[in-house]
């Protein structure tokens, strides 16, 4: 008789989350567990309010839902937040979370970073859209990390919920003692899609997440306070304006195609003229809804007065704001930050032409939380190991 086959224990299946679903999506899930169709609208509205306006993570806290229904919901679904691997607080109050999300399909668990930047009148959350990035912008640390996968809408909106949890930005929650937060108003008042990844390469999930973030019966962030930043995925820019309607930021960084081809290789596909044309036609563009152009200041690369004058010429006719970003170095980069005097001269030229061009004060540099420095810690360790190995055994350099 053949020996009985060993049966592997069934893998414990994660319950589906209701976070990141549209109202229709929640309704379908409720119908799927047999909730009476005529109650679905009301139940969805209740659940939506508890998740996004009250920040609950446990169905048993949904006090206007009957006890039996709470048990049914909790047996079928989860509202779990992302797992926090580390939380670092910079000496300037910037906070960075390394978050881990479970494997999707055959993949492995993944890690991304989310950064909170408190200022006097606002608190900005920099949210990631992908694990790694395909675009290899040469000044960006994330660009050196292999693309692993897109984040789901749940994982994108989960970053906002988690930040509000940790900062005490939901009703009945308190802010950690000593945390740097704006002195009044909402603690997470602005969201920028400027973390890891190119949001327009993950359009549907980013769109779903941002529509949830701006929903007036939940997180209620004004679309004027949500900024989607792209390195120039031109074909998706009109859709972003029409279907998401947030503010737009462009990672420009150079005024000549030959240089931009090097700094932002996507430029080879969608050169500057094409990109600026899409900006001119961005739905809803006006003086009140200006496009932000991000310009990283790289010493002796893109920082001359002639570059500044060309920038002014290129942007003529586009309601725009120019953010000058002093380069934030990361381990292994060959770029250096422009001298302060050079940055000021550049800013003067742009300001005199009538563009508001704040020099973005570097934030969170001591915890590698500044612009272009994000990367998952496991990747950072791999880079450190490779660098150590390369210095010990120079022949192993790739
Ligand atoms: S700047 Fe943005 S698009 Fe470019 S490599 Fe970094 S994360 Fe990707």
UniProtKB/TrEMBL annotation:
EC number: 2.1.1.192
Primary subcellular site in the record, as a coarse category: cytoplasm
Biological processes per GO annotation: methylation
Binding site for S-adenosyl-L-methionine: 197-198, 229, 251-253, 328
Positions that bind [4Fe-4S] cluster: 133, 137, 140
Compartment(s): Cytoplasm
Catalytic activity: adenosine(37) in tRNA + 2 reduced [2Fe-2S]-[ferredoxin] + 2 S-adenosyl-L-methionine = 2-methyladenosine(37) in tRNA + 5'-deoxyadenosine + L-methionine + 2 oxidized [2Fe-2S]-[ferredoxin] + S-adenosyl-L-homocysteine; adenosine(2503) in 23S rRNA + 2 reduced [2Fe-2S]-[ferredoxin] + 2 S-adenosyl-L-methionine = 2-methyladenosine(2503) in 23S rRNA + 5'-deoxyadenosine + L-methionine + 2 oxidized [2Fe-2S]-[ferredoxin] + S-adenosyl-L-homocysteine
InterPro entries according to UniProt: Aldolase_TIM, Methyltransferase_A, RlmN_N, RNA_MTrfase_RlmN, rRNA_lsu_MTrfase_RlmN/Cfr, rSAM, rSAM_sf
Domain of life: Bacteria
Cofactor binding note from Swiss-Prot or TrEMBL: Binds 1 [4Fe-4S] cluster. The cluster is coordinated with 3 cysteines and an exchangeable S-adenosyl-L-methionine.
Active site: 113, 371
Domain Radical SAM core: 119-360
Keywords attached to this entry: 4Fe-4S, Cytoplasm, Disulfide bond, Iron, Iron-sulfur, Metal-binding, Methyltransferase, rRNA processing, S-adenosyl-L-methionine, Transferase, tRNA processing
Membrane-crossing residue ranges in chain numbering: none
Enzyme superclass (EC): transferase
Pfam name, any one: Radical_SAM
Other comments on record: Reaction proceeds by a ping-pong mechanism involving intermediate methylation of a conserved cysteine residue.
Annotated function: Specifically methylates position 2 of adenine 2503 in 23S rRNA and position 2 of adenine 37 in tRNAs. m2A2503 modification seems to play a crucial role in the proofreading step occurring at the peptidyl transferase center and thus would serve to optimize ribosomal fidelity.
NCBIfam families, per the entry: rRNA_mod_RlmN
The protein's name: Dual-specificity RNA methyltransferase RlmN
Species of origin: Kaistia dalseonensis
Organism lineage: Bacteria, Pseudomonadati, Pseudomonadota, Alphaproteobacteria, Hyphomicrobiales
């Amino acid at each position: 008789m053949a020996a009985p086959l060993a049966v592997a224990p069934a893998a414990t299946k994660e319950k589906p989350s209701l976070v990141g679903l549209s109202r229709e999506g929640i309704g379908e899930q409720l119908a799927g567990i047999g909730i009476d169709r005529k109650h679905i609208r009301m139940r969805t509205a209740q659940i939506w309010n508890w998740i996004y306006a009250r920040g609950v993570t446990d169905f048993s806290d949904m006090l206007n839902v009957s006890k039996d229904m709470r048990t049914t919901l909790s047996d079928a679904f989860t509202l779990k937040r992302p797992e926090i691997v580390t939380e670092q607080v910079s000496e300037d109050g910037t906070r960075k979370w390394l978050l881990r999300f479970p494997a999707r399909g055959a993949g492995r668990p993944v890690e991304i970073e989310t950064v909170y930047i408190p200022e006097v009148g606002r608190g900005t959350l920099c949210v990631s859209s992908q694990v790694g990035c395909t675009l290899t912008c040469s000044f960006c640390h994330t660009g050196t990390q292999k693309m692993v996968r897109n984040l789901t809408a749940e994982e994108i909106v989960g970053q906002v919920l988690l930040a509000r949890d940790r900062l005490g930005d939901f009703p009945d929650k308190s802010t950690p003692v000593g945390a740097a937060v704006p002195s009044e108003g909402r603690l997470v008042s602005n969201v920028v899609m400027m973390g890891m990844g190119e949001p327009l390469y993950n359009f549907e999930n980013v769109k779903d997440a941002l529509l949830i973030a701006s929903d007036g019966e939940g997180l209620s962030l004004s679309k004027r306070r949500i900024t989607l930043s792209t390195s120039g995925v031109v074909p998706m820019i009109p859709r972003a304006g029409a279907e998401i309607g947030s503010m737009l930021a462009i990672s420009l960084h150079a005024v000549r195609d030959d240089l931009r081809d090097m700094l932002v290789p996507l430029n080879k596909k969608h050169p500057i003229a094409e990109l600026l044309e899409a900006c001119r036609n961005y739905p809803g563009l006006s003086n009140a809804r200006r496009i932000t152009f991000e310009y990283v200041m790289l010493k002796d690369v893109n920082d001359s007065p002639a570059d500044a004058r060309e920038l002014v010429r290129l942007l003529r006719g586009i309601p725009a704001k120019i953010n000058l970003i002093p380069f934030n170095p990361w381990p292994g980069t060959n770029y250096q930050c422009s001298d302060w005097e050079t940055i000021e001269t550049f800013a003067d030229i742009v300001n005199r032409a009538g563009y508001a061009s704040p020099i973005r004060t570097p934030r969170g540099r001591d915890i590698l939380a500044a612009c272009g420095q994000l990367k998952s810690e496991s990747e950072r360790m791999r880079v450190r190991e490779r660098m150590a190995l390369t210095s010990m055994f120079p022949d192993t350099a790739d």
